[in-house]
Design brief:
Elements lengths: L2 H8 L3 E4 L11 E2 L4 E2 L4 H12 L3 E5 L5 H10 L3 E3 L6 H11 L6 E5 L5 H4 L4 E4 L5 H4 L4 E2 L8 H13 L2 H6 L4
Parallel strand pairs: 1-4, 1-6, 4-5, 6-7, 7-8
Antiparallel strand pairs: 2-3
Helix pairs in contact: 1-7, 2-7
Length: 174
């Protein structure tokens, strides 16, 4: 692992992420009365590991979606910001509310709307299929694609760098 990424990850107290393209593969299925999205269980379990280790997790998305609200509620994600076309003010509000500095925040994104946050936080990550303008501005690119465990990958890096991973593993080792 790149020592700079490990150093950055060690100081993270809050992980924020985009939804479409990161927690999902970016596909939005619309029927006449509902919106469907597919989430990967690895990302959900990763969020629970992060929360148990004391890492704050939040979603910032430009869309409004009952599906996303439901997933956030299932996972106990309290920092849910939907309809955020301008994401930087949301970042500033989260920092102020929780007493955080930019270097204590990680963000995972994939599209142009995410660039203002990605260029401000301590650990900026993108999924491999992110827009090239995003890829050129992040500290790391996940191996896993969006919607297939990319957020979990970032969470594991952070928890290992913070020294929290052994505590996560203790729960599963007999």
């Amino acid at each position: 692992m790149d020592p700079d990424i490990v150093r950055r990850a060690a100081g993270i107290e809050c992980l924020l992420t985009d939804v479409d393209g990161v927690l999902t593969n970016g596909t939005i299925l619309l029927s006449s009365d509902e919106e469907l999205k597919q989430f990967h269980v690895w990302d959900g379990s990763g969020i629970k590991y992060a929360q148990r280790a004391g890492l704050r997790v939040g979603f910032i998305t430009g869309r409004r979606s009952e599906t996303v609200a439901r997933r956030a509620a299932e996972l106990g994600v309290e920092d849910l910001h939907m309809g955020a076309i301008r994401k930087l003010p949301v970042l500033e509000e989260v920092m102020a509310r929780h007493g955080l500095e930019p270097q204590q925040i990680a963000y995972v994104g994939d599209d142009l709307i995410d660039i203002p946050i990605l260029t401000r936080v301590g650990l900026a990550a993108a999924v491999p299929e992110a827009h090239e303008e995003v890829l050129s501005r992040v500290h790391m690119v996940t191996r896993a694609p969006g919607g297939r465990g990319a957020l979990r990958e970032v969470i594991e890096i952070i928890l290992k760098a913070r020294g929290d991973w052994d505590g996560v593993m203790e729960r599963y080792l007999i």
